[in-house]
Design goal:
Blueprint (H helix, E strand, L loop, with lengths): L2 E4 L9 H10 L5 E6 L11 H10 L5 E6 L3 H11 L3 E5 L6 H10 L3 E6 L17 E5 L15 H13 L5 E5 L8 H5 L4 E4 L1 H4 L4 H13 L3
Parallel strand pairs: 1-8, 2-3, 3-4, 4-5, 5-6, 6-7, 7-8
This protein binds D-xylitol-5-phosphate (DX5) and zinc ion.
Zinc ion (ZN) binds next to strand 2.
């Protein structure tokens, strides 16, 4: 299965609802919602109220919420009430990871963990079993439109092997610099969910861009 999750960081915020509807109609199965707090990463994006409005307008969409924030635990309830389908935070955050996973689960939400480029995939091992998704960043988090880091790809193979060895059924997501030019390698190594911001919202024809990425990924999975 190939899932494309367009990062709305690259959308036109003046017409966010319309842009999101366009990419969903174009074949995207999720909306990737990048939350930044200006502390965990050197940038600030958007938070709970914007998600709440989007969810009100597009209630059936899958909201893939990527928390680039230092304290995801204290905001879990608010984001989940606002419509998060998946609450995905960083292993490098300042909260107790297991406590945060348990809290998200108790709130009835899917849960994911992300690693930055400097973090080894083995660090995820103690948490893998109860997760719905792990995210391997292929750029330093903080900004859209950065260059894909191909040297992160062995992490995807390592995680896929570890999950197979332990019979853990999990989505592996990759985020940063994904386009038709870069999607093949992560797909071949076992990624199933592909975040793409500039490659989708920056495309003249988002439907064509999504279809092309899906085709390439499906052919090598
Ligand atoms: C980076 C974000 C990404 C980013 C992806 O900090 O987590 O989701 O918006 O954008 P592109 O696909 O343009 O690299
Ligand atoms: Zn992201």
């Amino acid at each position: 299965m190939t899932i494309i999750s367009p990062s709305i960081l690259s959308a036109d915020f003046g017409k966010l609802g319309a842009d999101c509807r366009t990419v969903l109609d174009a074949g995207a199965q999720m909306l990737h919602y990048d939350v930044m707090d200006g502390h965990f990463v050197p940038n600030i994006s958007f938070g709970v109220p914007v998600l709440k409005s989007l969810h009100k307008n597009l209630p059936d969409a899958f909201y893939d919420v990527h928390l680039m924030i230092s304290h995801p635990l204290q905001y879990a309830e608010a984001f989940i009430k606002a419509g998060a389908t998946l609450y995905n935070f960083h292993l490098e955050c300042e909260d107790d990871i297991q406590a945060a996973i348990d809290a998200v689960r108790a709130l009835g939400c899917k849960v994911g963990l992300t690693i930055k480029p400097g973090t080894a995939p083995e660090a995820l091992a103690p948490y893998l079993a109860p997760l719905d998704l792990v995210l391997v960043m292929s750029v330093e988090p903080g900004f859209g439109g950065q260059k894909f880091m191909a040297d992160m790809m062995p992490k995807i193979s390592a995680l896929r092997e570890e999950c197979e060895k332990r019979s853990i059924d999990i989505e592996i997501q990759v985020d940063g610099g994904i386009s038709a030019k870069t999607i093949e390698e992560p797909a071949r190594r076992g990624a199933t969910v592909f975040v793409a911001g500039s490659a989708v919202f920056g495309a003249a024809d988002p439907a064509k861009a999504i279809a092309e990425m899906k085709d390439i990924a499906a052919n090598c999975q």
